[in-house]
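hey can u check if this looks right to u? its 151 residues, i copy pasted from the old doc so theres a chance i mangled smth
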Amino acid sequence: MTAHMMKDGWTGVAKGRPQVGAFAERSRRTQTWDIEAFAEMTGDRNPLHFDKTAAEASVFGKLIVQGGVTSGILNAVVAEDLPGPGSVFLEVSWKFVKAVGIGELITGRVEVIDVRADKPITKLETSVRNEAGEICLTGTATVFTVPLAKG
């Protein structure tokens, strides 16, 4: 099948087909409420998130947010910005390389490294950095973007 005969898998997708090299970022400051909300959702009540004394005596030296709070900013970037509405993760490969504490400004970034033409599937380079610019999370994600009905 020649390229011009191939079905465009991006028809109807809210923000259209992303281009390789396109990127998006989103920042937010972590707060105690994030830890409590994540624990309520998941049951993750690790003392590193709740016991100040234990956390300060640990290798981290402070209370830290759950990894899902750190990676969660990437959910927002993917769903809201790039590829945008209708996007869901198919696969992620993330390394958590630096813990994030309470009150830290984190920035999630995704960059398009591959886009399928026949299906609305995008491969992204992903990262989360702290205010000092240090990488806290790094890796890749594969995202599927479904067309959404208006309404």
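The chain has a mean pLDDT of 94.
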